[in-house]
Amino acid sequence: CSTVDDFCRQHRISRIDVLKIDAEGADFFVLQGSERMLKAKAIRFAFFEFFDIARTSRPLLPMAQYLYTFGFEFLGTYNE
Questions:
Q1: Of 30, 77, 29, nearest to 50 (Cα)?
Q2: Of residues 43, 39, 35, the one with CA closest to residue 13
Q3: Which of 24, 26, 38, 25 lies closest to 66 in space, CA to CA?
Q4: Where does the pLDDT of residue 36 fall: very low under 50, low under 70, confident under 90, or very high at 90 and above?
Q5: I need a surface site. Which of 8, 13, 38, 78 has the fewest CB within 10 A?
Q6: What's the CA gap between 31 and 35, in Å, rounded?
Q7: Can you spell out the DSSP letters for the chain?
Q8: Does residue 30 contact residue 37 with C-beta atoms inside 8 Å?
């Protein structure tokens, strides 16, 4: 297991256009492991899925607030 920051450093990745996260409830941990890239504004778009916003182990609001500190804006949610 590694972080996005470590993976990018090891593979000399300087920019991510779309960071798609599907970590089965650990999505916020993935974001936290991307902090260096987020601070550098090296991630343009982050996309993650929620089965049920109210019953996730890491609710959507704290994730959105965390991303706001890096200049991200919440685009929306949808259901099938």
A1: 77
A2: 43
A3: 38
A4: very high
A5: 78
A6: 7
A7: ---HHHHHHHTT---EEEEEE--TT-HHHHHHTTHHHHHTT-EEEEEE--S-GGG-SS-HHHHHHHHHTTT---------
A8: no
